[in-house]
Amino acid sequence: MYPRWMIVACLFLSSGCGSAVQHPEILAVLEAQQAAWNRGDIDQFMQGYWVSDNLTFGTPEGQTRGWQAIRDRFKAKYQHAGQMGKLTFDRLTVARTGPDTADVSGTFHLSVSEGVRSGRFYLKMRRIDAQWVIVQDFTTPDS
Known about the structure:
Elements: H1 4-14, H2 24-38, H3 42-45, E1 56-59, E2 62-65, H4 67-77, H5 81-84, E3 86-98, E4 101-112, E5 115-128, E6 131-141
């Protein structure tokens, strides 16, 4: 079963609440993550996430909780930059749910030596200390 926040996000996003172009400060976080990933820099990629034990990263296989645990998960899965491939995001939609909160959805494409992996992601973002950060991430690969 999908988390309640993801269902709510889908409803907001499907109602046309806003495009990414209307929210450059939020889009900048994802652009920085994409650039860091493509340089093979997981530590810089992680700067887009809330540094908190309450940060969550979910996939259909389960959920990882806490910034450090999520960083460790990425480091274990991608032990060197060559395994990371090239990441692109598209079809981004942003729904501002409050002055300091937003739901974001989009698709990802990860080109690796074995081919292209793709899927969708659903993010809850929050402005904390004047910085937009991801506080919840649910990523699901295409079948």
